[in-house]
Amino acid sequence: MRRFLLKLLYLILPLVALSYPLDYLISNALKEDHGMHGEYEVWNAIYENKIDGDIAIYGSSRAWVQINPEILETYLGKKTYNFGVDGHNFRIQYLRHLEYIKHNKKPRHIIVSVDAFTLQKREDLYNQEQFLPYMLWNKNMAVYTSGYKGFSKADYYIPFIRYAGRTATIKKANTYLLHPEDTSENFRQKGFRSFDLQWDASVDSLLASEKKYRIKFHPDTRTLLERFIQECQNDGITVTFVYAPEYIAGQQYVENREEAMEIYREIAQKYSLVFLDYSQNELSFKKEFFYNASHLNKEGAHLFTQQLAQDLKKVTF
Amino acid sequence: MLFNSLDFAIFLPIVFALYWCIPQKNNKAQNVLIVIASYLFYGWWDWRFLSLILLSTLVDYYVGYTLSRKQKKSHKKLLLWLSISINLGILGFFKYYNFFLDNFISAFSLVGQEFTASSLKVILPVGISFYTFQTLSYTIDIYRGKLQPAKDMIGFAAFVCFFPQLVAGPIERATHLLPQFYRKRTFVYTKAVDGVKQILWGLFKKVVIADNCAEYANYIFTNSEELSGSTLVIGAVLFTFQIYGDFSGYSDIAIGTARFFGFDLKQNFSFPYFSRCIAEFWRRWHISLSTWFRDYVYIPLGGSRGNVWQQVRNTFIIFIISGFWHGANWTFIVWGMLNALYFLPLLLAKKNRNHIEIVAKGKLVPSVNDIFKMISTFSLTMLAWIFFRAENIAHAWQYLTTIFSSSLFQYPEVIPKQELLLIICFLIIEWVGREGTYAIQIIGTKHKKGLRYTLYYGIALAILWFRGSEQQFIYFQF
Q1: Does the structure show a pLDDT above 90 at B204?
Q2: Could you give the domains of chain A?
Q3: Pairing of strands A55-58, A109-113
Q4: Are A227 and A259 in contact (CB under 8 A)?
Q5: I need a surface site. Which of A37, B106, B270, B447 has the fewest CB within 10 A?
Q6: Which of B19, B465, B473 should we substitute to test contact with A (largest number of A Cβ atoms within 10 Å)?
Q7: How far apart, in whole angstroms, are the C-alpha atoms of residue B240 and residue B280?
């Protein structure tokens, strides 16, 4: 038995010994990447304790492409950072919030950009690569990213296992390891990036081909949103709900959109939050300010953030 | 609990340590530990279905015990049918209830009778087909006088729920496995080392071959309507290796794990894709199930004896039942029938006992004739797997008609180079090691230490480097 266990140990030990340094090298190199719409940049800012903001903006892509922190800073005189996370519902937005307040000074004000999909829970862990460099032995990541089709338990606890089989990711990390000087510019600025794109015929035809969609509200996500509000209120953080402009013709494709709006109104009332709804705002009726039905383009984002700043000044600050 | 999960990686060393801490002469205490560990292993997935295992255990223990005491044949027969009815009744309800209901309704609607009945949301308990057949073999063998009943309840319960092979086999015969629970188990170094090697190879098959092939096979089968015939051929090849890597990989891990505890399980796969005819393929594929059907269904029906009509009937029965065992879907039945059609000419020409030995035994390369036979058998098997993998008959038919269309000569839309390269490496290792019970068994003993360890580390690194995205074991659903 002893001989067997020793042999097994000899077989496993070199692999175990190698796994942590390899993990460390790959994770650090990956953090240099600006792909995936700059998601690593936001995570890096969080884990490097770089954010000293008064206002934090949460949401999906409708937050990070539409709400410009610099404009808010100019109008409100408060440091602002946009934490919008691409393609994710509130569960992952909450994970970002937890990690942000754990590693940085807490903000005074949080703007939650809600939309029709905030209270859903997608099945896949979209852009799951963004979690790779930060997830080893990270309890919050294990709790909030494990309910998806994505990672297995071992990925959170055993070094290097989560990189196993991800040859493209390892290759990407390798390029940063071999050429550390080759650092391109950040994709987002303070978590924000607008797109100088125009609505064209292809968007029209895409919209025409859209099928009607029914939101499946996820009860746990709603509970999480309410818990988040309570936690913020206990910490003296003001929460404001914002529903950013959404192109009017696109709104009809979500069958139970009004149900979502009603939930937000209900929660806002329950916790005495300000809810700024721009879905019927004049911007929502002008195609020229959008590059698709749910995202404002650069000009639209600029105009909207200006208006938001003015409204926030009136009602909150 | 999955074999390739962190839970199992923690569970196994704990059970292993506890098991060998128990004094070796006390095999009853070891059996108790096996039962507790196995129930935990199974309950990890869904503890509610432990009650089915428990019921099956109690019924068959009682029937086995009583059978051995009854003298009258009619009483014995009654007891046997009691066990068969309860076991197959449970299996039938959980696995086939909705299938029969849906087909019953469809059949009535064909003759203009509308009949409404709602399907039940029945969850299929993992491994039910495997342990049901295992316990049935116990009762039948006692009835036939081939086996003495279990000496005690604990040993029998351990035989039914032994965790390495509980959820996906190999389906063990009571005559082979049950006596091992009553023997003194000693830790044998060479057995344990062999177990580690077999687990390593099983993991490679599952994680590298099956899981990587699955990603492309799933994509190609899901989008088969939009892809060319040439791509669909690639999809079928990938599924052919996925199912082999998945199932035989699981069997290897199960056999290797059992060795840690001093048990020998039966070989379940023996390089089936090197078969030179379908009969040989069925002697090398899922051996524990094929031999189960042979001994408990085919031979009692008359086997290959009798006139031509009886032989044809028996062959179809055995393959259709085998298909149906896999799942409640017509696709599995057609898969079984297709294999019967492949098998029948060999049976009628009395060539079904050819190719008993492994191909090109003692040689490095096969003859041209053998290569041709292996490729033909592989192609036939691959075509049958299309039915096995398809969602329904219409899907399988669409898949096949696209393959046999002019688009077969188009440049494929999808060429998974890495996966195809991995398959080639895998086939080379399998070919070199085909005279062992698993591919690296002989390689691991014949060569010098340096070469052996290079091979082991090579496989371990390949598992880390090429690990595919985690997929459920296919045979769990059966």
Answers
A1: yes
A2: 2-181+194-315 (3.40.50.1110)
A3: parallel
A4: no
A5: B106
A6: B465
A7: 17
